[in-house]
Amino acid sequence: MRVIALLVVAWPGWSGEVYRLNLKGALERALEQAPEVLLGRLDEANARQGVEVARDPFAPKLVMGSGLAYTYGFPMSIEGSAPSVFQVKASQSLFNRPQSYLLAKAKVEARSAQEAVGMKRDEVIERTVRLFLDAERAGRGLELTAGQIGNLEAVLEGVKARVEEGRGIAIDLRRAEVNLKKARQRRRLLEAEKGQIERQLAFVLGYGGEDRVEVIRAEGYEFQLAAGLEAGVKEALERSRELKKLQTDLEAKTLEVSANQSARTPQVDLVAQYALFARFNNFDQYFSRFQTSNAQLGVSFKFPIVAGPASAALAAQARNEVSRLRVRMVQTRNRIEVETRKLYEDLELHRENRELAKLDLELAREQITVTLAQMEEGRATRRQLEEARFLEAEKWIGYWDAQYLYDKARLGVIAVTGGLANLASK
Questions:
Q1: Domain residue extents for the chain
Q2: Strand, coil or helix: what is 148?
């Protein structure tokens, strides 16, 4: 299916619709309906039509019409042609060096537009995946916080009972109440965050302003990365759409320089015409011989002698733009290399943090096992067990936060190394 919309429900206080999508469905929707992608395709289509516009002088043109008129006296011209009952004119540029360069430039600009569309697609894919990860994090946080609230409510009831029996102190009750309020406030914040992310995701995917996208969570994602830092830097430089677009822009500007420099070259055009004359235009009275059907085929030559200052100025402007693009290319290459190295370093740090969070979680789970055993022996209370479960939920939140940061780091590496298209095709 193009879009996996499994459930549409009404949201209390929200008049829009809620669409449930998995990551594959969200990416398919993004590539088809995201507004930025659609606008980029229109720009690409305009660039392709620009090639046809630049090719127009080299395409044959045929004009049919009439210069029908009654003549009194000498047969004068009508728009540069003798008066005729019927006429056909054909023209085509055979040699036009400036226009040839402009045609080549238009073709390069069409390639540049393709790279621009690719950049937009990659941006939309990355934004979609990031929002998807954000929504998953908020959803998991809500579930874990709900479990914490249940544990804290049980702790509060136990503390109240002990205080009423005189076996507890008031500050313990106060602490339990504050912890419960904190957990409930966290739940409200996560609910608001989740709703905001789902509306942002709906906006990115081209849904209405009142709609939301609820994500279908997965256990994990297989993000394929380049093997090693140096291989990643190489891939980032080779597959960078930004560098490719700058290269095509540089090529287009170089052709523009050549087009302006060739303004003094001659131009050759093919011209042909046919005209049907009539005697009521007095041709037989003023010319020695009258002929009804008349045709002409030839070549028009133009030799620019004084081209004016515009072509030289335009060439100088284009050369300045070429120099600017070359500087930008060097700057972009250096930036990509620095960013790629940083992303790989961050990825390694987040991997270590995730492993540490996992160990911390395992320790908290082992503590619950120990506390349960102590309860059976009468050496631990239910309050201690609930506190241990609360701590386990905190460690789960820490673990999933570490996993979230690790996934975002992997996504950053994939984005900079040009692997987002492969991610969308899975």
A1: 8-424
A2: helix
